[in-house]
Specification:
This protein is mainly beta and about 90 residues long. The chain has a single domain, classed as Roll (SH3 type barrels), CATH 2.30.30. Helices cover about 5% and strands about 50% of the residues. The protein has 1 helix and 9 strands. Pfam families: DUF1653 (PF07866). This is DUF1653 domain-containing protein. InterPro entries: DUF1653-like_dom (IPR023387), DUF1653-like_dom_sf (IPR037135).
């Protein structure tokens, strides 16, 4: 793991993740909320305007039920391609 790469129990950053509905997202880091110190995932979609978004870590890591089976909301699929890294 590089000096800029971090790992939480189930989240590898930076990395590319696939949402359970099929779209890919680049995850850059886990940030800390300034007021309540909650953990927020900083990410952007690999499509459209590619605006930065944050989502609570607990929600990012949760499972959702699809066709009666639990699946991860986001699943790690690999590194962000070097030419697409931005932060």
């Amino acid at each position: 793991m590089s000096a800029t790469e971090t790992k939480t129990p189930e989240l590898r950053t930076p990395g590319r993740y696939r949402h359970y509905k099929g779209s890919d997202y680049d995850v850059y880091e886990v940030a800390t909320h300034s007021e309540d110190e909650s953990s927020l995932v900083v990410y952007r979609p690999c499509y459209g305007e590619k605006a930065l978004w944050v989502r609570p870590l607990s929600m990012f890591l949760e499972e959702v039920v699809v066709e009666g089976k639990p699946v991860p909301r986001f699943a790690y699929i690999g590194d962000i391609p070097t030419d697409e890294k931005m932060i």
